[in-house]
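Reopening this ticket.

The earlier resolution said the output was attached, but the attachment link was broken on my side. Pasting everything inline this time so it's all in one place.
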Amino acid sequence: MKEPIIHVIYRACDIVNAVNANPRPFNLDKTTLVQLSFQSLYESLQGIPHTIHVIGDSLSPELQSFFASRHCKLIQGKFGNDESIRQTIKLANQFPEDDWIYFCEDDYVHVPHAMRYIHNFLQDPYQTMDHTKRLYTWSSFINLKKKDIIIHPTDYPDRYSGKYRRFSFIFHSNDCHWRQITDTTFTFLLKGSTLKKHNNLLLRSAHGANDRLLSKHLYGRFTFFNKVLALSPMPGLATHMHRDTMSPLVDWESVISEISERIK
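Inline output:
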């Protein structure tokens, strides 16, 4: 089997601190957060076949210099949030259907082993489903081994309480467990062939950066007609850097402190 190649498309902008009112943890300013997030991903990718493209939206001179010193291709412009998402989709369509594409926003910090665990999983994602039989739902027989997969690298804490709890498929690989989820942001990894199947939906979702529209129409829950199986690792391999939404069971302050020392 061909070793998976991961094409990272990293969407960066440091002129806007946050699109919502949820404050950043550890009092990080946006420029520093973008650097920390990218560095964590960059280091996690070492030893894994990959490419990195950065879609830079109105980047500060400091960030332009930062990305220029890394092994990545920087594409700059004054896009705005919606257009920068469309630019990532346009770029992603240039990659082979057998390769994997990781759309990554600029406020996700990764643990050092994040991409190694994901890459190991991609070697044969369906090995985790060896004991999953065909399941009867109200509208279909489904075979999860034939379903396209999307990976969202975080483990949001609200999925364990209140109205956001869901009955989910749970799988395990050699490195961690994987949980079925029904919602993501615009940070996720998918195969090129999956991208092409759902390209129109992705483009529609770019209008207003509507990840709710994306999630509602892309991810299966009980039925899977023309939908994909979305998975999140447990514990999370990355965290969305907003207070109250950070992946549990990881000392993120220590992770960030160690990365900070290496980018000074």
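Reporter confirms the inline version is readable. Residues 134-141 have pLDDT under 50 and may be disordered. The chain is about 30% helix and 20% strand.
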